[in-house]
Amino acid sequence: MHIAEGFLPPLHAVAWGAASAPFVVHGVRALTREVKANPESTLLLGASGAFTFVLSALKIPSVTGSCSHPTGTGLGAILFRPPIMAVLGTITLLFQALLLAHGGLTTLGANVFSMAVAGPWAGYAVYRLLRKLDLPLMVSVFFGAFFADLVTYCVTSFQLALAFPDASSGFVGSLEKFAGIFAVTQIPLAVSEGLLTVLVMRLLMQSSKSDLIRLGVAKLTGSKTQQETKQGAVA
């Protein structure tokens, strides 16, 4: 990921585009509602999109027709939920295809599905599960970002194996080959991205905690919480 321009057979390119489209349409509606209801979210939305753009633009050659890099989608998925991240990820991939020759227009649907749909949903699911288990916020953020990154490459491996099955071992053999090559670079990249996302979240806790509380990421603590508890008891 990103899969290069023209690398996928036409039928696969169209199919992945069709699979990604409903998620992006749903995300546009969710993004429109968020901006209308909370205009103050615009700055944080832009920062989440920029974080994804910068990280996913770092390119490490991996296998013919693709490359390895961080994705940056875990942060946006945690802050604004996966539907909105589908839109931010699609915009990122579109600009990278047009301006950086990173990915492509014919493979946009496949790249969107892996990086902007599957990765964010997986990362957010892990994050929510760990929060329900009462694990610390930063531990949950780390594993959310880690799995958002790693699942993106699992899906890309699936896409490539489906398009190019091995001559002798078929789809399974091809999947093992692509996943094995990606794992060498992607596992340490996923760990690095998890740590970087934790660092960014810590900075946001200092500079934008009110926004994180409104988004449900952080909770009220300290004297403010005690004061509200007393007011509730009096009422």
Automatic annotation (TrEMBL):
InterPro entries: CbiM, CbiM/NikMN. Keywords: Cell membrane, Cobalamin biosynthesis, Cobalt, Cobalt transport, Ion transport, Membrane, Transmembrane, Transmembrane helix, Transport. GO terms for biological process: cobalamin biosynthetic process. It is found in: Cell inner membrane; Cell membrane. One of its GO terms (cellular component) is ATP-binding cassette (ABC) transporter complex. Pathway: Cofactor biosynthesis; adenosylcobalamin biosynthesis. GO terms for molecular function: cobalt ion transmembrane transporter activity. Its main location: membrane. It holds the Pfam family CbiM. The chain crosses the membrane at residues 41-58, 79-102, 108-130, 137-158, 178-204. It is a multi-pass membrane protein. Forms an energy-coupling factor (ECF) transporter complex composed of an ATP-binding protein (A component, CbiO), a transmembrane protein (T component, CbiQ) and 2 possible substrate-capture proteins (S components, CbiM and CbiN) of unknown stoichimetry. Part of the energy-coupling factor (ECF) transporter complex CbiMNOQ involved in cobalt import. Belongs to the CbiM family. This is Cobalt transport protein CbiM. It comes from Streptomyces xanthophaeus. The lineage of its organism: Bacteria, Bacillati, Actinomycetota, Actinomycetes, Kitasatosporales.
